[in-house]
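Notes from hallway chat w/ T.B., transcribed later so I don't forget. T.B. wanted the structure written out for a chain they're using in a teaching module, and asked if we could keep both sequence and structure tokens in one place. Agreed to drop them here.
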Amino acid sequence: MKKLGIIIFLNFIFCLGVNSQFIVGLNGGLNSTWLINKQVFDQGAEQDIEASFGNFFGFSASYYFSDNFGIEINLNSTKINQKYLGSVKNFINNDILYNSSISYNSNDIPVIFKFGQWSYFELGGLIHLVNKVTYNRTFIDPSGFALINGNIFTYSNASNIAVKNKFKSNGYGVLMGFGTNFNLINNKLLLNFGFRVNYIISDVYGINGLGFDKESSYLSDEEKANFKTNPLYGGLKLSLLYVFN
């Protein structure tokens, strides 16, 4: 019985070797991007989020143990944008409109399980390293005073302010996607077309649409309790792949 088990195991390893493939490639794509923050969502017209888009590019390497299962690792440079449109109240209760944006760059290292090869479903996790974050803000009235939670806020425009120190340096997340590979040259050069969604589970802290962080005196205790930022980004993905048999 023991010998039979060894024979079956060796046969399994041999089959993996026969069908295994190593694949490397370049990948990139466009994403719809969101910095999910309940404190912002609860503000209504004071901090409305607007549709925002980003991109990513990088390298991939995958190893298929069989025709139906493999593992892939990526090294991606990712850009996440988040736009806001809102208003603050001045001393005579008039709305002062503003728009603002956060430009957020990260290096992502996904580790992905692939189910299927020519057409596939993927599921995995990723390490998220915050690289650079800048903030911009423009008021319809360039400067003045407003009341926020009973505190006087001296508002002004801001341009390309570095705010990486307001964010955690790293996080972790999950991803899922699906796609199809198309043969370009002799099953060696492939074109991949897919869709992938990434969600950072851990709180990266950050700022809101007005540029306030969690410790700001302009936030109430309830707002501070609801202040948590989780990047969400997903969209179309294209890759050019080379297969080593």
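Follow-up for T.B.: The two ends are 34 Å apart (CA to CA). Might be a good example for the class.
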